[in-house]
Amino acid sequence: MSEGSTLDASAAIERVYRAESRRVLASLIRLLGDFDRAEEALHDAFAAAVQQWPANGVPANPRAWLVSAGRFRTIDAARRDARFDASQAAIADGLEQRHAVQPELDDESLDDDWLRLIFTCCHPALSADARIALTLREVCDLTTEQVARAFLSTPPTIAQRIVRAKAKIRDARIPYAIPTRADMPERLDAVLHVIYLVFNEGYAATSGDAVVRADLTRESIRLGRLLLELLPGEGEVAGLLALMLLHDSRRLTRTTASGEIALLTEQDRRLWDRAEIEEGAGLVERAMRTGRIGPYAVQAAIAALHAESPSAEETDWAQIAGLYDVLMRIEPTPIIELNRAVAVAMRDGAHAGLALMDGILARGELDAYHLAHAARADLLARLGRREEAIAAYDRALALAALEPERRFLARRIGELR
Amino acid sequence: MKYLCLIYENEQAWATMPEPEANAMMGEYFAFTDGYTKSGQVLGGNALQPTHTATTVRVRNGKISTTDGPFAETREQLGGYYLLDAKDLNEAIQIASKIPGARTGSIEVRPIMEFQRD
Predict the structure, then answer these.
(1) ipTM exceeding 0.90, yes/no
(2) Residues of chain A contacting B88 with CB distance shorter than 8 Å
(3) Quick one: CA dihedral A107, A109, A111, A113, positive or negative?
């Protein structure tokens, strides 16, 4: 065996690990019926690859090879233990019988396993926190330390959350399965929600260190791509991926060099990521073509109109206001209503927007939402109602918790005084 | 696998429900029970009398203490239960969602613990 082939093999193992380890894990969970046993089997499978690939070459289908190796090693180990401990014999028999006939290892079955893992980690019977932690750990392979840092928690807390979630999966018998057609809409919503929460934590994080947050944004986009690859006909999957890409395209200009918030109107659009905008806009069209249009696709369509406009003034506000009308029909929330009022103000003038906004605020639901008062203040300032604008910004400032937002609001008040 | 579905509902709402409506609801419960008993997925179940009939019993230091009322005062009260036999939690959730009380109250789905006894 030459030194070159050893190097080739170890490079291949590293590449396969990065690309396939979670998919291999997903299949091992199905075949072995248990997350922890599958983790061990995954480890054993790669140990076997390190021993065998340099001598025998990289197998044609590394993923299937690893799944098989992990399964056999686990059954073998149980058989060995059975010589000293009779209870292990039953376990070994059980494992072997689980998929006694040739276990299905073709690409399609393995992709299904990957979906099973995602849907199980995002099962609505698990708490929202547990779904996020489990998805980042099991599907994205982040360490508990990384998850803890991203969510300002401690590794033991995150580890315990994951242990409890796995215990519930096992004890309440949450099935390792792709949802039935009838359950799919609700279950897919739960998955998309987890992905979007992870993205938002990375993108608009309230806290946590910048590097980890970039990890979260990247992982959520990667998950979005993967899900779209597996469920190509789902409009909302394309919509969510588009929305994330279009937001991410502005990551360099959302804050100034000194860390201040920059409004959409103030951002240098030349610095927006063209490739992401193009991909995002293409995905919006793709989502629209599926004919099943949900809130993610509509929000992505709005983001695409912003992204493709050469300046804030030239933005197609009429179409944006129209899309907010659509969004209101799908998901009538006060926040969407507020955004719609902002778009109407751009289309029909500040007066029209302010009338809507006053109506929304009068209902009281958004009274404690600082951005509602900031948006209203902005319209008052545009109408030259300086004193009222300052009062509204003061109200926003009193409610705002984040330092950059507080500095932004203080700056606005300073400009008006 | 067996699951217990605990039906929590506001018993005041039951008590004040107009009779035709209450009869319709009972009809739905009977239909649910019959249908899922026939399919073998409901193993048993009962409605409970209201919480004003409840007595809570404790033994401390060998002494029995008896108090009036349920163990915990809650906004919705335990009003009945079904014992299910389901393939997995997804199936249990599907069946639980068909219990008439799920539309007005809440159903807590709990897996039954199995003990190995020699």
Answers:
(1) no
(2) 173-175, 177
(3) negative
